[in-house]
Amino acid sequence: MGNADITLRHIARRRAGDLARVFVPGRRSVQVLGWIDSQVTKLERRLDKALRLRVGGEPRVLHVEFCFALDDGVPDQVFEYLGFLFTALRAEAPGEPVPPIESVAVVLSGRKRRLPATGKRRTAWPERRFSGTHFRIDAVYQRTVAELRARGSVFWLVFAPLARDATAAAMREVVAEIRARAATREERSELYTALLVMAAIDPWGHNLRKELVMLFDDRETEKKLLRSMPIIGEMIMEAERQAALRGEKRGEKRGERRGEKRGEKRGEKRGEKRGEKRGEKRGEKRGEERGEQKGAQKAIAELLGRLFARRVGRRPTADEERSIVERALAIGPGEVEDALLDLNVDSLMRWLAEPIPPVTSSPGGAAAPVTPRGAAGRSGAARGARAKARGAARSGASSA
Fold first, then answer.
1. Which of 139, 156, 184, 264 could form a disulfide linkage to 115, CB 3.0–4.6 angstroms apart?
2. Rounded to whole angstroms, how far apart are CA atoms 171 and 208?
C-alpha cells in the first residue's frame, strides 16, 4: 500500500488507545501496554501490527492489518502473521498461557456490496469440522462520515474521505475538528497528511483531494502550516503555478482576440476556443501529475527521515536522505522502513552507503520493484533472499 500503509501505521503508533477501544466489546476498561516488539519483528519484518492490552484487567493482544482491498491473499496474510505472533509470545514467557489474540483487517477500498463482518482461513480437511482462524473485517470505506466521527477520535477522522457519503461540506467539518482537537502542530500536520493520503485512494470517486487542498488554503495560518508539509506544500505551490500560468494565457488570449479582425468567421473562433481549452486541460493534468509525484517522494523522505532520526539520534544528511528515497522508490517504502527498524546503527549506515540493489524484471521484460513483505503474492524465494541479506548485514556488524 506504499504511502498509505506507512502513514496509517505511524499515526496508529501515536494513538494506539484510540485504535484499540473501537474493537473492545462493551464498555470494558482498556489499558494499552505497548506494541509487541519481539522475534515476530525479525521473522515478519513488520512493526506496529500487534498491540498488547489489558482489557478488564485481563491480558489481551490486538492484531491489526491495514488492507487496500480484501483480496484473496488477506486471509493467508492474517493466518501467517498469527503463527509468527503466537510463536513469539510463547517464547517470551515459556510455560505461561499465551494471551487471547483478536485479528482485525481494516479495509480501505473494494466492492460496493457490503463486506462480511468476519473473514476466515480454513486449514482443516473439507469434510472435517472447521479448523483455522477467523478475523474481523472493518470496512471503513463502507461506513458513513457520521459513523467514523462517532468513534470519538481524530484517528478515525482521517478515514472520512473514504466514507461512502463523503462530501466537501463534510470534509470542512472534519478538518475543523482535527484543527480543534489535535494536541500539537506536528500532530495536526500528520493528521492532515493522512487525510490527503486517504483522499487519494478515493474508492467511491468523490474526488475530494483537490477540495481538501483548497479548504486548507482558505486560511492563511493553515496555508503557512501546510507549506511545511512536503506532500501538501508541493500541491499548493503547484496549484498556484498552474493558476498563474492560466492567468497569463487568458491575458494573451484576450489581447489576441482584440487584435483579430472582426471579419473572422465564427466557426474559426469556436475551433480556436476548443483547442485552447483542450490544451489547458492537458497542461493542467500533466502539471498536477508531476506535482503529486514530487510530493509523494518528499512525503516518503519526511516519514522515513523521522524514523531514521529516532533510531540513529539525528536527522539524516542530504546523502543519507537521498539514499533512503532512492531505495524506497526502487524496492518499496515498506522494505526501507523494515531495514530502519531491524538493522543496528552500524549495519544501517553501511546499507545506506551500498549501491542500490537492481530492480527485478517481470516475465514481459518490464521493470518491477521488489514486493514488500506482507504484500499479496510474495514468494518464498523473495522471503529467503531478504532473510539472507539481513543475516549477512548482522554478521558484518558483529565482525566489525
1. 139
2. 8
Q: Which amino acid is at 77?
A: Q
pLDDT in tens, 104-116: 999 999 999 999 9
Count Cβ atoms below 10 Å from residue 64 Cβ, excluding itself: 22
DSSP code of 348?
H
Query: String of b and e for 17-36 (b: at least 16 CB within 10 Å)?
Result: ebbbbebbeeeeebebeebb
Cβ pair 48, 35 in contact under 8 A: yes
Which of 115-129, 236-250, 278-292 has the least mean pLDDT?
Answer: 236-250
- Note whether 232 and 192 are within 8 A (CB): yes
Residue 96 identity (one-letter amino acid): E
The pLDDT assigned to 238 comes to 57
Residues 144 and 164 sit within 8 Å (Cβ to Cβ): yes
Q: CA of 169: how far to CAs of 111, 193, 223, in Å?
A: 25, 19, 19
Of the candidates 175, 139, 141, the residue with the CA atom closest to the CA atom of residue 157: 175
Question: d(Cα 78, Cα 135) in Å, to the nearest integer?
Answer: 8
- Round to the nearest angstrom and report the end-to-end CA distance of the chain: 36
Q: Is the pLDDT of residue 222 over 90?
A: no
What pLDDT does residue 267 have?
A: 66
Pairing mode of beta strands 58-67, 50-55: antiparallel
- pLDDT above 80 for 395: no
pTM of the model: 0.60
Contact yes or no for 48/85 (Cβ under 8 A):
no
Buried b or exposed e, range 352-378, using 16+ CB within 10 angstroms: beeeeeeeeeeeeeeeeebbbbbbeeb
State mean pLDDT over 19-28.
Answer: 90
Residue with cell 465564427: 266
Q: At what angle do helices 230-259 and 185-201 cross, to 10 degrees?
A: 60
Contact 375, 333 (CB under 8 A): no
What's the mean per-residue pLDDT of the chain?
A: 79
Helix runs in the chain, H state only: 3-14, 16-21, 39-44, 73-92, 145-149, 154-157, 168-181, 185-201, 209-217, 220-227, 230-259, 266-312, 318-331, 333-342, 345-353, 380-399
CA dihedral 317, 321, 323, 327 (to 10 degrees): 160
